Amino acid sequence: MSDALLLFLPLVVPAAAAVLGLVLRTCKGPQAIVGVLGSAGLLVVGLMLVARTDAVGVIATQSGLWPAPFGISLVADRLAAAMVAVAGLVALAGSIYAWRDLADDKLGPQFVPLMQFLMLGVQGSFLTGDLFNLYVWFEVMLVASFVLLTLGNQRQQLEGALKYVVLNILASSLFLIGAGLIYAKLGTLNMADVAVRLAHPEQTDLVRTSGVLLIAAFGLKAGLFPLFFWLPSSYHTPRPVVSAIFAGLLTKVGVYALMRTSTLTFAAKAPVLLELIYVIALLTMVCGVLGAAAHFDMRRILSFHIVSQIGYIILGLAMMTPIAIAGSIFYTLHHIVLKTNLFFLSGVVNHIRGTNDLARLGGLAKAFPGIATLFFISAFSLAGIPPLSGFWAKMAIVLAGMDLRAWGAVGIALGTGVLTLFSMTKIWAEVFWKSAPEDANTTDNRSGLWPMLIPCVAFVGITIGLGIWGGHVFAFAERAAEQLLNPREYIEAVLGPDAITGEVPGAGRVRP
Amino acid sequence: MTLFWPVLLIAFASLLAAFVRLPGQWKALWAVFPGAAFAWVVLSWPAVVGEGELMASIAWFEQLGATVDLRLDAYGGLMAGLVTGVGTLIIVYAAGYMEGQPGGSRLISMLLIFMAAMLGIVIADNLVLLFVFWELTSITSYLLVGFNHEKEDARKKALQALLVTGTGGLALLAGMVLLALEAGSWQISEILQRGDLVTASPYLPGIIVLILLGAFTKSAQFPFHFWLPNAMAAPTPVSAFLHSATMVKAGVFILGRFSPIFNGSEWWHGPVVVAGLVTLLVGAILGLFQTDLKKILAYTTLAVLGMLTMLIGFGSDLALKSMLVFLIGHALYKAALFMVAGGIDHGTGTRDVWKLGGLSAVMPFTMVAGALAAFSKAGFPPFLGFIGKEYVYKTGTSLDTLAPIFTGAMLLGNMLIFALALKVGWYPFWSKGKEAMLEGHPHEGGWMMWLPPLVLAVLGLVFGFIPVWTGDTLVLPALSEITGKSMHEHLALWHGITLPLILSLVTFVGGVLFYRAREFFWRKHDRVESSPKVEHAYDRLLVGMVKFAKRQTQAIQGGSLSRYMFIVVGATALLLLWKFVRFDGWPELTWEGRLAPIPVIACIWTMVGAIVAAVAKRRLIALLAMGVVGLGITVLFVNFGAPDLAITQLLVDGLTVVLLLLVIYRLPPIKAEANRWIIRADAALSVFFGMLIAALTLSAMQLHVVERVGETLAQMSYAEAYGRNVVNVILVDFRALDTFGEIIVLAIAAIGVTALLAASKERSSDED
Known about the structure:
The structure holds two protein chains of two kinds.
Chain A: H1 3-23, H2 28-56, E1 59-62, E2 73-76, H3 78-97, H4 99-103, H5 111-127, H6 131-150, H7 155-186, H8 191-198, H9 207-222, H10 230-234, H11 240-269, H12 271-294, H13 298-319, H14 322-353, H15 364-367, H16 369-382, H17 389-403, H18 407-433, H19 450-485, H20 488-495
Antiparallel strand pairs in A: 1-2
Helix pairs in contact in A: 1-2, 1-5, 2-3, 2-5, 3-5, 3-11, 3-14, 3-19, 5-6, 6-7, 6-11, 7-9, 8-11, 8-20, 9-11, 11-12, 11-13, 11-14, 12-13, 12-18, 13-14, 13-17, 13-18, 14-16, 14-17, 14-19, 16-18, 16-19, 17-18, 17-19
Chain B: H1 4-19, H2 32-51, E1 53-61, E2 66-73, H3 74-97, H4 104-123, H5 127-145, H6 152-183, H7 188-193, H8 195-199, H9 204-218, H10 227-230, H11 236-245, H12 249-262, H13 266-288, H14 293-314, H15 317-348, H16 364-378, H17 384-397, H18 403-425, H19 427-430, H20 435-439, H21 447-465, H22 467-483, H23 499-516, H24 518-523, H25 525-530, H26 534-556, H27 561-584, H28 597-615, H29 619-639, H30 643-664, H31 676-702, H32 709-721, H33 726-734, H34 736-767
Antiparallel strand pairs in B: 1-2
Helix pairs in contact in B: 1-2, 1-4, 2-3, 3-4, 3-11, 3-15, 3-21, 3-22, 4-5, 5-6, 6-9, 9-12, 9-13, 11-15, 12-14, 13-14, 13-18, 14-15, 14-18, 15-16, 15-17, 15-21, 15-22, 16-18, 16-21, 17-18, 17-21, 17-23, 18-23, 27-31, 28-29, 29-30, 30-34, 32-33, 33-34
């Protein structure tokens, strides 16, 4: 399969599935099957992309065959390919998980097309090599996610969705201003071209303003301090499958955009911005985990944990050493799977008892030991307990911090780990261990659990598998980090082998 | 590679036990698996002692330092023998203990997985692997303390144990990562050989303190001791195994493991000795006041752990030797006494010393086990406990500094341990005047409940009888391992009439006195329990943390959208200001353009729309004003020659307004902001941010350093793309992918509108 086809398929597959889903809006069954097949196709394409990029390096193609930087480039390095694949995995799991909701008319005929459109936006963001095109994909994601948030049309949902959409539009505006400034200053939007033009020595101080704006825009999308408000305001309101997919994927697109732009543009030219990100990362970790400690609802607690763990990922990015970036990438992949699964499981609990309020739940360990085990493993993986995947993710960040002698970062990362453990045991003790309160609803709804549990079992398998055989994935993450830290390969793939006349400095930091 | 299978075997047994439910007493069959592992340890012993060690290794997470390196040396082997040997008996005991109660299989499964992890700790030769097993024991301990999880108390104490050991565990992780980085290796045996690299490191104090934090929390050293007595909420087999014989020794174990490196550093001896000393005294003294058999045992465990830690802190060969003898003795008698206490609880339904008494007639086997174990613990000759105590005194009296003080502390500690031993192993069986006790028909449990403690108690006697064998086969090889030199001095029961012997005699006298005064202390139990404790600090810390978290979250995640927007915009503005102040200085702005009427009108139109939207009292008006803004921008597009863009703008704007209208329809009317300062701040920030962005745009337009892509596009438009309308060509050819994306955006918006319309129709028809 040609590179061009491979790069376009992640866009074509969800777009086609979405359109087909729209056509089939009145036939529930076939529409759901289209959702599953489209997502499965995405996963397959993603895996092929991973195999290709891992074998031959960065691949690129130009839309409309206009040579870069005049058209829009699609590019995949190892990181992008891995993100495409894992997003496909989440989509597939979500499509299966949604089966029951679709059958019960809780999601409506819009769900399947919207989810595929959402995937289109996500995949476009991963693969585009153009700053403005990235903005377009962000818009696709934003509109799709906004409508998805409102499916079900509960008042609480609309309120959450409003906060979500307003704050995210604000971020989009900041992004647009940042991108506009870059175009005004450098005359190009192609990210590889931006990197090349920045390489001229006199351009050094051009990048900071737009860097700040991009950090603010992507930081809001990623859920960084102090811009994360939209996330805990909205993620506990929609249907479980929707919040699970959002929780796993959407913030990671912001993280990905930060990784991509920072390594291509300002990491080398304005390292002071990395220090800014570093401080923001620490604050994000702490604020997020404290928010989780303060809440008493499963999905709210889990939402705040997203914020906290984005802090870990961004901390790795700010440290900019090979092991730190590899740790960030590994953390991202692990967290997408795990977080989606925890939201899936909270949806299962909601399905059984009709609530996610810890005070009104209880006794599930006795009634559903299997589900309890699934949750226990996922929750303790999130808390970084070995040998589950979360431990290695945390370990990589700690090791990178120790390597840089960044004591404060290591201390905060570990302290955040303790508080994470605290709030995970809170859910565990309240939902599973304690007996249900006497006035609570204990008539368990056991019908239709299986389609919801299949993805949960698979994802728990992945978190255990990543713990035991994750060395291979981590090695892949290291190779991906190498590509990020040495943008030459990316630039040459996009602009051709002669593109670089001056020197393109690597982004990496030297170990003291 | 044979080193892998004992751990795997026990882990496998755990998995099996979770699914295969053996009935009643048959659960004791699970003991076959740890029994096999124990047999393997015993059979490997000659090889371990002879060749020094067995090793095995497979790759794992190399990038993060983790390899599955296993190494069975004499020190780890000694612990491995205790873990699997005591573990085998515990499984048998647990099968008896849980008979007729629900959850027996679950308990045994968890005990087995714990055992696998504990075995892993003692044979791991890689720091990360060690930590993996270490955390696994914390987690299984959490699950086991919370075994009766429907009781709030059990949940609370499980969490306490987990948080204390878990926090310490993370400190340990930090310490070990630092240790590995300094030594340049993750392999423990290799690090031990590179001790000088570590001791030369400037981070040595940090490494030591962090590792000590891990060890002290796990081994319940003061001030982290409080979780251990609380962990007695667990079923008795768990207390016997985890919280006396094995897991709490993990801390002591790694202190011994790393002592060859740190021995000699001032950061090592001081903290370790002091923590041990305080723990010894705190445990022994608080134990006097306890009236629950298991609590008494828990406090003596504290005392003994303190003693072991203190001995490691002294660091001399003699001290380490005493530590090993004491450790073996303790593992045997303490597990036995716990099982005896469990047996009493099982047979009588109580562990309260006020109620217990006169059981010797009805529980003869348990009585024998209890007496033997208590004698060993009290230090009667010829039990192993006696030898241990002799060596402790020998160590104390031969110290260079402060010998009288330390020996005095040891003496007091041992006296109290003596008294406490008799309270558990003697008092319930022989005290008189408790006839009421017998009316409840106390009875002996099955053989599964008395045989395991009896075996351990008898071993304590046997090992004491053959001190030379015990010393040469068990103690000396392990000692050589942790001192780093080969040791040959035999263990002896009889040292002649020496100062240690006299101290032993004093211990007996003092111990008997304390034992006789027992009721004096028991009466003060409630008062002591309610006095200030370290535990209260933990409680306060936890409550304070949650309170702080709530306040902090309330402060930043207050719920008001306008507040969030203020923060987002404010933060961005601050960052931009920071950038200017720190680097660029202020941009120099000049204006060279001309003013044409249409753009000026459109701009004013737009600004008016924005202001109306901002001050509108009703959402509808605000929304319409936003539409006005959109129109203004459309006019600008038209004016600059981009009708296609203008149409798109119009469409998107219109759809957005409709979409928002549907959402807003359900929202309550705008609450007028009461606080005028907030309004002023909002207005000021908006104006400031707008001006900031305008200034930035202006300054960026002035720079024109490189040829813009757009200029080339304009040239290419007709020549290559065959279109005269450049904007059009850009939209549908050069950047067609963007347009495709925007079409999708519109399509999604349309789907959203129909969904919301359908939903509101449904709702209004519901309301009709």
